[in-house]
Amino acid sequence: MLATLTLVIAPSLAATDLEIVGYCRSYVVRVLVITGAGVSAESGIPTFRGKDGYWRNLDPIKLATAEAFARDPELVWKWYRERRQHIHNVQPNAGHEAIARLAQRAGEFLLVTQNVDDLHERAGMAKTEMVQIHGDIFLTKCSHCDFSYAGRGGSPEPPDASAVEPESGRLGSIAPTSESDGNLPRCPECNSLLRPGVVWFGEPLPARETQRVENYLQRDSCGVVIVAGTTATFGYIIDWALRASRRGGQLIEVNPEETPLSRFATRLVREPAAVALPRIVDQLIN
Ligand code: APR
């Protein structure tokens, strides 16, 4: 796609030459954006490690594990149902919208989000330009076989309402999103427990999604890398940001607090994402 976000190089020549040179020397700006829970904080979704992260005095990091699910699947499902309902009730913020705008104007674009909510998508991000590296909270998958089912928000209909078997509650319980639906969903294929389609601590990242990131990084470096609202706890987040900006690209960190990535950034923006991102994107686009 012809560059809509261009960097003009040599301002010293006459106007007509400049346009030609500018046109010739303009670069298709490849952009990588990496986001974390901080980007959804201003929509009212608690972050993981922030003071508002605890649920019923339970540490989310202790809840989001296969061990916790094995120990008390009802409790874990209660937590995810409440989060699904909460996410369903909130809206994307100006930070999500700014990233979607940048995606439309960049030469090449990829968003890698650690967030399992659907706010980037609801802000207009195309799934083809986005990788949910820690999964999707609205996906329900079997803890044993490959069965999975994608629902959205408060009370999505099961795949085929007429197939619900009230007495066994099998299909009926495929997508329990309302808090009152206390029973545990079971797989219609193998009757094992169904679980939320997110990546829990200690679990490997989804191979297909990781490969999409690798393909994007291997194709070329990026002129602009934005890392917003994440503690950059995981090494792969820092690795992807540094590899993307490896040929002198801008590495912009948007976070009110310092992170392990800060010392590598070419620009530090210590502001909330919904405030900073619209301005940064305007500067990049205009
Ligand atoms: N704007 C920008 N950044 C913010 C804002 C805001 N309004 N509010 C908080 N932050 C920053 C915090 O300073 C912190 O650095 O967002 C970060 C949130 O950090 P975490 O809660 O650790 O979330 P995240 O980095 O996304 O966690 C990564 O770890 O817990 C797992 O799987 C989970 O995807 C998650 C991953």
Q: Which percent bin holds the helix content?
A: 25-40%
Bound molecules: adenosine-5-diphosphoribose
Count up the helices.
10
Tell me how many strands there are.
Answer: 9
Assembly status: single chain
Mean pLDDT: 84
Shape: globular
Spell the H/E element sequence. Answer: HEHHHHHEHEEEEHEHEEH
How would you classify the helix and strand content by structural class?
Answer: alpha/beta
Largest sheet: 6 strands, parallel
Rg: 21 Å
Strand order of the largest sheet: 3-2-1-7-8-9
- Quote the beta fraction: 15-25%
Distance between the termini: 18 Å
Question: Ranges with pLDDT <50 over ≥5 residues?
Answer: 1-11, 153-181
What's this model, at a glance?
With 286 residues, the protein is α/β, with parallel strands linked by helices. 33% of the residues lie in helices and 15% in strands.
Architecture overview:
The protein is of the alpha/beta class. The chain is 33% helix and 15% strand. The protein has helices spanning 15-25, 38-41, 60-63, 66-71, 73-89, 94-105, 119-122, 207-219, 235-244, 273-285; strands at 30-35, 108-113, 130-132, 135-142, 148-150, 194-198, 224-228, 250-254, 267-269. The strands form two sheets. Strands 3-2-1-7-8-9 form a six-stranded parallel beta sheet, sandwiched between helices. A three-stranded antiparallel beta sheet has the order 5-4-6, covered by helices on one side. Helix 7 links the parallel strand 2 (108-113) and strand 3. The protein is globular and about 55 Å long. The protein binds adenosine-5-diphosphoribose. The site of adenosine-5-diphosphoribose has 23 residues, from helix 2.
